[in-house]
């Protein structure tokens, strides 16, 4: 009888370990938290908003990029993903300006990964407007166009909004993921970047309304 029970326990354990990550349950206050003051979303009715707050200089954000890339290829059709560059100081603000400059110039796909790579693989700080301009030019962006957009009212408006959203979300670090302006998770809560994606999928499936 003892042998039978041992075999049954072993089988149960194997089945439990085989469960997909999406089948796991996560607890509010442990792997994610609910914002006491939800932030209004930027997507149309019926859509689920997923926001990533990040900083180009953050090594954890850099390491999360491949996982996010895989997730983006398989995300549900009703989910809209928005990146927001968090702002805590002047360097973060410069990098936020770089992000929105690339966006307005229509070259974000060409700039986003190389900018991360330059900071984290080539170890170039890119902490001044001049250094960022040199980087953009190296990626094929016209110097005059960079100056025009980088110093534009449109970019400044986006940066001010990003700074305000950083405050509204109440984050203490990056990367942070927010679902529908209400549910927030990050590396420490989720247990690392893989856990962040698992919690994200759980929130989309079980909490997003």
Q: Can you describe this structure?
A:
It is a single chain. The chain has 209 residues and is an alpha+beta fold. It has one domain (27-206): Glutaredoxin, CATH 3.40.30. The chain contains 9 helices and 5 strands; from the N terminus they run αββαβαααααββαα. Strands 1-5-4-2-3 form a 5-stranded mixed sheet, with helices on both faces. A hairpin with a 3-residue loop joins β4 (176-179) and β5. The longest helix is centred in the first third of the chain and has 17 residues, at 2-18. The N and C termini lie far apart (49 Å). The mean pLDDT is 93.
Secondary-structure map:
Layout: H1 2-18, E1 33-34, E2 48-54, H2 59-74, E3 79-85, H3 90-105, H4 108-120, H5 129-138, H6 143-150, H7 153-169, E4 176-179, E5 183-186, H8 187-190, H9 193-206
Helix pairs in contact: 3-4, 3-6, 3-7
